[in-house]
Write a structure and sequence with these properties.
The protein is α/β, with parallel strands linked by helices. The protein has helices at 8-13, 31-43, 58-67, 80-90, 103-120, 131-144, 149-154, 170-186, 196-205, 226-235, 280-291, and strands spanning 19-25, 51-55, 75-79, 100-101, 191-192, 213-218, 236-247, 269-272. Helix 3 links the parallel strand 2 (51-55) and strand 3. 33% of the residues are buried.
Length: 294
Amino acid sequence: MNIKPRGKQEEVMALPAKGHIVVLGTAGSGKTTVALLRAHHLANIPNGGKVLLVTFNGALVKYMRGLSNYQTQKLVVENYHTFARGYLNSRGKMPRWNGIADPDEKVSYIEQALDYFKKKYPTESTFKRSLEFFIEEITFIERFGFSGITEYKEAERIGRASANIKRENRKWVFEVYERYRELREADGKKYDWDDLALYVFNELRNDDSERRYTHIIIDEGQDFSPMMIKSLVESVADNGSLTFFGDVAQQIYGSRLSWRDSGIDINKVWRFDVNYRNPATITAFAKSITRNKY
């Protein structure tokens, strides 16, 4: 790679190859570039172990592979769901054919589960809420990895403040969620794209074999669910490192989700404030246009 890091980028690239590191920056501050540079740096440490550079977006994987000579024995670049499926398959936990419910199938199973309880409890007001509410609420349960009704009832509703539901009524949502999983699994769909990370995490907790990756770098981390991040933290070797790169302006869970909630243990957050993509002159020009009445 013929890319030269600048300023704080150089410092972050050469941070210790151990523990957890978080780097937040504005758009255009070079986070993806530094993620690639750090991946190459870690992969070139003698006897340093394998490196995974993981992102959420498949298109971004292709972009990264185009920028770098990623085809080495020590550096792997892939999106999260490729990593997750590969790991579960290595543990014999991935069905051979169509084991993951696609979004349309997920909606259909949740709708069937909801209809079941509407008929069973025709006077319960919770079941009069929209199908969209139940889809979003079940996805919330999956992305945060709530393991039971007690945990779900007590959880702070990060990202779900607009969808109020009384604590005593959450049991009905969890009933629909469990029924959804029964219907899905009866059709051979062991997972959906939102709870795949929970199964990866649980499997890793029971897996005492040597970890494949010594270092994991997460790019565009704001797109990852808390459960995805937790599973990646669990995937790092004991003597390795995890580096999280994210957009400071797009943290969908806001300040109410601590890093520790996602399994990341840090004392300091590194911040990239300089925008290399849009110089100050372009930014000022764009702002002046927005103020124009036309």
